[in-house]
């Protein structure tokens, strides 16, 4: 059984939050791109199948779950989050906002783990981060309708995924054709880098695995970029290449 299309639309919602955190590629960034971590540095900080263990595969580059622009997924409820999704449909990244993303799929596409990292001028990032945080905090119930006509309504509740209670995160619960769907979306800041984490599963309700993987994500970003979660201090320059570390 593949991941239901409305849940793919939900992964697009997570990507839409990432868009607000810089990937819309607004040309007027206050800091030159060279003052920010490069896309290659961000890519090195992403999760890999080795970090999550056996049973996961990486989706082909450039093909995390379809965006609303590619497969329209009308949204009702949560006006602020809906606006981000619409923005995503018309957005295009630029070199001014270094970005890297990955989708890791469990067996038969369950669960799906997504991670987006974006580097941006500190002032702009603060504004965008606050916008994304407000979009999540003010969303309580949202309905996605896929291009197939299937729709699912999710109840949205705050959740703590990692060790920082202040890190914005929500849990979404819904059902489709009797199948239980559950997702967690969390965002975090690492100096001039914003992270969006998404965890999506069917026929499950526990957030334990999502929380464990979120901690793995945070630990790897902190180690790779040399800054801590919640910090406004820019990441350290890239270290000399050393032994790879798997975060389990």
Question: What does it look like?
Answer:
With 248 residues, this protein is of the alpha+beta class. The protein has six helices and nine strands. It has helices at 5-23, 39-45, 49-52, 79-89, 122-137, 208-225; strands at residues 57-58, 75-76, 99-105, 112-119, 141-145, 151-158, 169-176, 179-190, 193-202. The protein has a nine-stranded antiparallel sheet, with helices on both faces. Helix 1 crosses helix 4 (79-89), helix 2 (39-45) packs across helix 6 (208-225) and helix 4 packs across helix 5 (122-137). The two termini are 27 Å apart. Residues 1-7, 23-32, 64-72 and 240-244 have low confidence and may be disordered.
Quick summary of this structure?
The protein has helices at 5-23, 39-45, 49-52, 79-89, 122-137, 208-225, and strands at residues 57-58, 75-76, 99-105, 112-119, 141-145, 151-158, 169-176, 179-190, 193-202. With 248 residues, the protein is of the alpha+beta class.
């Amino acid at each position: 059984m593949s991941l239901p299309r409305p849940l793919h639309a939900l992964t697009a919602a997570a990507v839409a939050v990432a868009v607000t955190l810089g990937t819309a590629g607004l040309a007027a960034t206050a800091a030159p791109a060279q003052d920010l971590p490069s896309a290659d540095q961000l890519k090195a900080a992403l999760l890999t199948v080795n970090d999550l263990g056996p049973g996961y595969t990486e989706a082909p580059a450039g093909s995390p779950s379809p965006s609303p622009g590619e497969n329209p997924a009308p949204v009702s409820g949560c006006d602020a989050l809906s606006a981000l999704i619409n923005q995503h449909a018309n957005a295009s990244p630029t070199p001014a906002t270094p970005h890297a993303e990955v989708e890791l799929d469990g067996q038969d596409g369950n669960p799906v783990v997504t991670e987006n990292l974006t580097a941006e001028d500190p002032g702009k990032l603060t504004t965008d981060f606050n916008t994304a945080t407000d979009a999540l905090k003010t969303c309580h119930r949202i309905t996605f309708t896929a291009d197939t006509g299937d729709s699912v309504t999710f109840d949205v509740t705050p959740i703590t995924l990692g060790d920082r209670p202040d890190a914005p995160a929500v849990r979404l619960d819904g059902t489709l054709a009797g199948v239980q769907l559950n997702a967690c979306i969390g965002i975090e800041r690492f100096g001039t880098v914003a992270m969006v984490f998404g965890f999506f599963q069917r026929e499950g309700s526990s957030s334990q695995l999502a929380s464990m993987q979120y901690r793995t994500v945070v630990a790897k970003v902190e180690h790779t970029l040399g800054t801590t979660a919640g910090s406004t201090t820019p990441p350290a320059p890239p270290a000399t290449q050393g032994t790879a570390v798997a975060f389990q």
